[in-house]
Specification:
- The protein is an alpha/beta fold and 274 residues long.
- The protein has a single domain, classed as Dihydrofolate Reductase, subunit A, CATH 3.40.430.10.
- It contains seven helices and ten strands.
- A ten-stranded mixed sheet has the order 1-9-10-8-2-7-3-4-5-6, sandwiched between helices.
- The longest helix has 14 residues.
- The C terminus is likely disordered.
Amino acid sequence: MDKALVSPRVWQRILDIRNGAGCACCGKWTAAERAALDIYAPLARRDMGPVTIGQIGQSLDGRVATVAGDARDISGPDGLKHLHRLRAICDAVVIGVRTALHDSPRLTVRLCEGGNPARVVIDPRGRLPNDARVFADDGARRIVLQHGDTARPDGVEVIRLPAVAEGSMSPRQILRALQGTGLNTVLIEGGGITVAWFFQAGLLTRLHVAVAPLLIGGGPQGFHTPNPVAQLSDAMRPDTRVFDIGSDILFDCGLGPAQDIISAPWHGLARQMR
């Protein structure tokens, strides 16, 4: 397991990569700084085509909240910083309507330097009230995916998609719609059901699971697929890297054919930057 240190110069390099003005193949770095670059630099690239990242913050016993629904401090301080860094390097952050209703998240970048991503809510039936914090007009794009004609505040983009099973939406159609608006690097932040939904559809490039050292004893699971395997021999065993990010341990899992983003050469991109 590698210790990762996101020093100011490392994060500036990540932002440069995010903005098409840098690469990770040059420079002198400590081992811990190099580990941090290994986590974030591939995801910040914009020369690899669409990338979809799932993120889960959970306890040692796999919970994302208490039985009463308290999820506020499920991640340690470094786990929260990791989440904000992912927001800063992605074009859009996606949540389901349950998370928007229950947690009232802002989905902004506050614990690191970087711009706010587009905020996307999957709300098939139009249940989210228009005064929800994700709809706050702060200059970031705000998008809601829904079936019907629920009116939304000025400036909120509405993408209408057809209903599929039980009134839900197709994850593949969601990603295609977002990519059609120029949002190609997408963070599926929550909740766990939504992350599992995209995983089950085979659409995640990488899955980040940040584990905090606490035991809850009950409450919702961080990851629960609708079609779990019956035999361990059938379970997915992703190409996984493990990092000590401080208060939490990060499992960085490669999924599907796009997982080679981590090992893709930088030389072509480096030439573009000259």
